[in-house]
UniProtKB/TrEMBL annotation:
This is UDP-N-acetylenolpyruvoylglucosamine reductase. One of its GO terms (molecular function) is FAD binding. Coiled coil: none annotated. It catalyses: UDP-N-acetyl-alpha-D-muramate + NADP(+) = UDP-N-acetyl-3-O-(1-carboxyvinyl)-alpha-D-glucosamine + NADPH + H(+). One of its GO terms (cellular component) is cytosol. It comes from Pleionea mediterranea.
């Protein structure tokens, strides 16, 4: 079950396609392996891996990789309005979105084509085009590796926030085994975000009654639009290694925003509440002329400033260095510290089990703790 080769190649298991290795790898594909998984995590450092599309791996990781490939799903608890689906963690997220839409259930259409597994989706509360996973998530089943038992967390316990969750705040503690989502039987389009609002406009212009216009729209049509836009906008990791948005969109207070607005009138931002604004990180990076900038094989994508790419056999270290250049310049010019959305996994950053106090130690992920 555990690969006993001295080192396991992870190059094909991360969407940046950077060369990385680990001490060993366990394919976790059956629930009767739970005891083995718990034992392993009590004895050795480990990394929980799904599709590897939100990770930046740095060289050799002295740990066991637990590759979650649990498959299968089932519908249950159907009412007139809703149906629940429980999906095992190793299923591909996008395939499951299409499965539910083809089965006639809506809700996930705006989240089409996000790479990765279902089990990783709650970790950063995946979101796109005005919709976040938390709006449809009922519960998460996981192994609590700290307590060594299976647990169920309801939506509230997951503590979801923008690209954040209880799982991210306690990284390495929970291994998610399945996710239960509540889907709609009646389609309610979510078209507030550009360019999806074009769908409402197109439908309205060809039908004078706007109510019935959007009602002719199907969830599959929205998914098709999302897929087309994403394919046009974002580089395909199979063709050009990347992990999507490298940084989160920073949230700043209104006074700070107004100061920036007077200096940079074109700044792109959206209100979070009365006090705070969410600034488009891509706009900040683009303003500083980073599009197309390269560093030892790493590059800022020429179309999407928020996406760093492995252009020419870059190492994880090169991508990290480029990201630090961006962070430093953005902080200097705009007074904003960009936070990584992508999880950095280095020798020091794998989760280690600390035998002495029966507790988990998450070694610092702060960039300052890394020697560049
Ligand atoms: C081209 C591209 C576009 C993207 N667009 C978006 C987008 O629009 N919105 C968005 O939110 N994200 C986006 N992402 C980021 C990424 O797809 C998501 O974060 C996705 O959920 C990661 O899934 P994964 O299986 O690849 O996770 P991995 O990269 O393998 O892991 C990510 C984190 O989750 C943990 N993890 C993985 N599986 C489990 C599990 N079963 N239990 C517990 N922890 C686990 C890992 O330890 C790690 O900390 C994009 C990425 C790419 C490459």
């Amino acid at each position: 079950m555990t690969n006993t080769a001295p080192s396991v190649d992870l190059t094909q298991l991360n969407s940046f396609g950077v060369v990385a290795t680990a001490d060993g790898l366990l394919e976790f594909n059956r629930m009767d392996q739970v005891t083995d998984v718990i034992k392993l995590t009590q004895q050795q450092p480990y990394l929980i891996l799904g599709g590897g599309s939100n990770l930046l791996l740095l060289g050799h990781l002295p740990c066991q990789v637990i590759h979650v490939t649990l498959s299968g799903w089932r519908y249950h608890d159907e009412t007139n309005e809703h149906i629940n689906i429980t999906i095992n963690a190793g299923e591909n997220w996008h395939n499951m979105v299409m499965q539910t839409l083809n089965d006639g259930y809506s809700g996930l259409e705006n989240l089409s084509l996000i790479p990765g597994t279902v089990g990783a989706a709650p970790v950063q509360n995946i979101g796109a085009y005005g919709v976040e996973l938390k709006e449809y998530l009922q519960s998460v089943e996981a192994i609590d590796l700290k307590q060594g038992k299976l647990v169920s967390l309801d939506n509230r316990s997951c503590n979801f926030d923008y690209r954040n969750s209880y799982f991210k705040q306690n990284i390495g503690r929970f291994l998610i085994t399945s996710v239960t989502l509540k889907l709609n039987k009646r389609f309610k389009p979510r078209l507030e975000y550009r360019p999806l609002n074009e769908l409402a406009e197109t439908a309205t212009s060809s039908n004078s009654d706007s109510q019935s216009a959007t009602s002719t729209l199907t969830a599959l049509q929205v998914a098709d639009k999302v897929i087309a836009v994403r394919q046009q906008k974002l580089p395909d990791p199979d063709a050009l290694g990347n992990a999507g948005s490298f940084f989160k969109n920073p949230i700043i207070d209104k006074a700070h925003f107004l100061r920036l607005k007077s200096q940079f009138p074109a700044i792109v931002a959206y209100p979070v509440d009365d006090q705070q604004m969410k600034v488009a990180a891509g706009w900040l990076i683009d303003q500083l002329g980073f599009k197309g900038v390269t560093h030892n094989g790493a590059a800022v994508h020429t179309e999407q400033a928020l996406v760093l790419v492995n252009q020419n056999n870059a190492s994880g270290q090169a991508i990290l260095e480029l990201s630090k250049q961006i962070q430093q310049k953005v902080e200097k010019v705009f007074g904003i510290r960009l936070e990584r959305e992508v999880r950095l996994v280095s020798e020091q950053c794998v989760t280690e089990y600390n035998f002495s106090n029966d507790n988990f130690a998450n070694i610092s992920h702060s960039p300052d703790s890394l020697n560049l």
